[in-house]
Amino acid sequence: MGLISIDVSHDGKAITVESDNLLDDIRKKVKHLIVLNPFQVYVEIPFDEDLGKNEDKVFDAVRSVVNNIKKDLDKVIEELTTRLEDLQIEEAAGKSVYDQAEKSMKTAEKKIKDLAGITGTDVRKAVQKTTGSGQLRSASRTVFRGIELAREAFDEHGAGEQPSVSRDTAKALSALGKEAFKLSQQEKDARTDLEDALNKQLAQIRATFKENQKAAEKEEKKAETDKSKDKDKKKPEPIKDPIVSEKDFDIKEYAKRHQAEVRAVEAARTKYVDLVKSFNDKLEAGKVEFTKFYRLLEKAKEPDKDVEEAFDKFGESLGTILDTMPDKLEAGEGCLRVFKDDFKGGASFEKALKELAACKGTTKSGKNLEAAGAVLEKLARQT
Predict the structure, then answer these.
(1) How many whole angstroms separate alpha carbon 379 and alpha carbon 167?
(2) Are 188 and 328 in contact, with CB atoms under 8 Å apart?
(3) CA–CA separation, 297 vs 344, rounded Å?
(4) 15-50 per-position pLDDT tens digit
(5) CB 43, CB 6: distance < 8 Å
(6) In sequence order, which residues have a C-beta less than 8 Å from that of residue 356 and are 6 or more positions away?
(7) Listed ranges 132-136, 225-229, 273-277; the one with the highest mean pLDDT
């Protein structure tokens, strides 16, 4: 389980680190025990300085960080597979070990998700150290898609256990449905708040243009009038915020002079991205319970038609909501660039707003998920 190669690039505006799946080399080796979903790395660090001769040093430092995370991932998987193999031996001796196997899987999954959570920070620190820069920002969409026990690895149901597992699983799905509906509403509100913050900032910048244009014209006329009266007259006081036209506008300089406004946009962006990430994590965890329920239905000789119908509706709604998450994360993270990219008449702001507006709301699907989960829980209690 050696080191892996990753893509590191610098386009003059940001350093980007990407890998489709850090676990791709190990997943086939453990497929008899677990289904190991992708560990996808994406980190973007706004950096508009020329790396020059430092580029190789920076790229090597970043790769070293990710390779160390890869080593930690491999260690977690090795420990999990060793534990599961021991449990298989106990099961062969007649013991019921499914719950223990699932508990071990969940523990490993949490460790891997924790590693996903620190990847962006570790990469950013490596860039800061090798470039000698101060505090940099980073946007990380590094995510782990979870683990499942392989279908044939363990006997899922001991004697008399199936109804209990079914009830517990249905209860978990019902709870997820309620949470998904609530978070769908919160996501919509947070997205609107972020759009409002961007629109307010863009309007303020454009209002500044007009104010300064008028001030500049007034000072110019005044200077011309005074010139004929007093050639030695003092020069007019400089305009406090010298942005006269969009052509001359430097967004980075503006951000330095208007830190409070920048922080307001950043706070709205952080709130939105954190909410979407949390929402996505809960949905991914819910997929595990959904898969467990699916296996129950598969093993049932004559599955209840009402249960199947509610299950299908739940699965459809869950998939619909999950499909919207990548675009929402990308749109939220993209707002980082509005104070980094060239202003170009507000093009960076308008692009960010367009991407946010294109995000699909999931309130309806969240309500359907909640309703289907409630039906599943009710039917499971009747078994």
Answers:
(1) 9
(2) no
(3) 57
(4) 999 998 899 888 888 888 899 999 999 999 999 888
(5) no
(6) 191, 194, 195, 198, 331, 332, 335
(7) 273-277
pLDDT band at 231 (very low <50, low <70, confident <90, very high): low
Task: Tokens 């708040």: give the residue.
Answer: 193
DSSP reduced 3-state for 198: helix
Q: CA angle 116-121-127, nearest 5°? A: 125
Query: Which residue in the block uniquely carries the two structure tokens 């196997």?
Result: 101
Torsions phi, psi of 15, nearest 5?
-95, 125
The per-residue pLDDT for range 153-189, each reduced to its tens digit, is 887 655 444 444 467 778 889 999 999 999 999 999 9
The answer for residues whose C-beta is within 8 angstroms of residue 55's C-beta and 6 or more apart is 10
Report yes or no: 145 and 287 within 8 Å, Cβ to Cβ.
Answer: no
Residue 322, token pair as written in the block: 């999950």
Residues β-bridged to residue 7 = 18
Task: For residue 281, give the nearest of 142, 118, 139, 174 by alpha carbon.
Answer: 142
Identify whether the C-beta of residue 383 lies closer than 8 Å to the C-beta of residue 164: no
Reported for 64-71, long-range contacts at CB under 8 A and 24+ positions apart, including other chains, are 64/126, 65/119, 65/122, 65/123, 65/126, 66/4, 66/6, 66/17, 66/19, 66/22, 66/41, 66/119, 66/123, 67/3, 67/4, 69/22, 69/115, 69/118, 69/119, 69/122, 70/3, 70/4, 70/22, 71/3
- The two tokens of residue 36 are 């190991």
How far is it, in rounded angstroms, from Cα 144 to Cα 218?
59
pLDDT per position as a tens digit, 232-289? 555 555 444 445 455 567 788 888 888 888 899 999 999 999 999 999 988 988 887 7
Spatial separation of the C-alpha atoms in residues 220 and 216, rounded to whole Å: 6
Q: Could you give the angle at the alpha carbon of 270 between the alpha carbons of 265 and 274, nearest 5°? A: 155
* Cβ burial 76-99 (10 Å sphere, 16+ → b, else e): bbeebbebbeebbeebeeeeebbe
